What does this fold into?
Amino acid sequence: MTKKEKTEINPDNRGFYGQYGGSYIPELLWANVEELRTRYSPIMSEKSYTDELDRLLRDYAGRPTPLYHAANLSRKTGAKIYLKREDLCHTGSHKLNNVLGQALLAVKMGKKQIIAETGAGQHGVATATVCALMNLPCTIFMGEKDTLRQKLNVTRMEMLGATVVPVSSGSKTLKDATNEAIRHWINNPDDTYYLIGSTIGPHPYPDIVTKLQSVISRETITQLREKEGRDEPDHVLACVGGGSNAAGAFFGFIGNGITRLTGAEAAGEGADSKKTAASINKGSMGIIHGSKTMLLQNKDGQVTETHSISAGLDYPGIGPLHAWLSKEGLAQYLPVSDEEAIEAAFDLTETEGIIPALESAHAVALLDKIDFKPGAVIVICLSGRGDKDMETYSNYFEGRSRGILPADNHQAT
Ligand SMILES: *Cc1c(COP(=O)(O)O)cnc(C)c1O
It folds into this structure.
């Protein structure tokens, strides 16, 4: 392949990447979304905005995150593997990059309070963190069922000063929390900023979040130049829930003619099983949360229940940018099962002494699924750390040591 001129990827002015994206919202939300659409770009290119964001990313979040040459893992696989260490960001994942940027945008827009929804609680914790920092009142909507499953994160958010509103309608999970957050936004249009946690939702959210997460690939380019004397890796691997860490890790390399981009979708118990979250491989086009994209739905267009062992990937849709990259052949998306992700997490832990988030383990598992030349330079976006997943890992670990589960390459020490 030959190197092509870099062109930055932007949606059109109605928010479409090809046929995906747009803004499919109820009339009552139109004014709120339109205000954001007309104001985000000018504000985000103001010097006072970028200076303040750069300062916070550096001194508060801990950027740049290291690009770590994983020598042991490289030896094992025959590639030259680098881990982009988003797990070392404050609060334990890439999510803070986005929240810091949107909270600053909210302040510049004159908004006085922040609302957000959260499923497992990771986005809620990142949002509550930044609201504490910026002294902004913060309300987090969370399905009642999730508040019980994720008690520790509820405590974190409350300690950070956020109000957590348990939502008891519907299935009492993420989608019901989203409905409640939108209702709140409609009723408080003037002073409230709705802070979305991934590259999803109506335009301009997917573009805002992509641009804020693109710091990941921007840093990767500088770091690779230093370590390898080149700007482009041969491969970039990332996991895809809504698609924000992958969008950020891919952004600077899209269409460069050199780098192959691969996303890991959560296959759950298998892409062909009913318990899956592989929206590109198993989904079809439809509208979810204000955007036209690939999603898991039944023949009547009802969004289906999804499953993944990792809460952050357990989402029936995918950001429109990824639907488009897949359609255009600019990136590929491969399913990774629960079992494969867990095995990859144990492998990484044993070879490098890094316990990854279950989400990030899906990206590591791609090493067994992609074709690469010996010595190929592979960057894996390690989106988060595994602290939050220790219960899942420990259940599995006990199963393995009792011989109930396979322990192929696990050596007792
Ligand atoms: C939330 C989360 C994800 C999934 O979200 P994306 O928007 O797809 O990046 C992945 N990894 C970690 C550690 C997360 O917390």
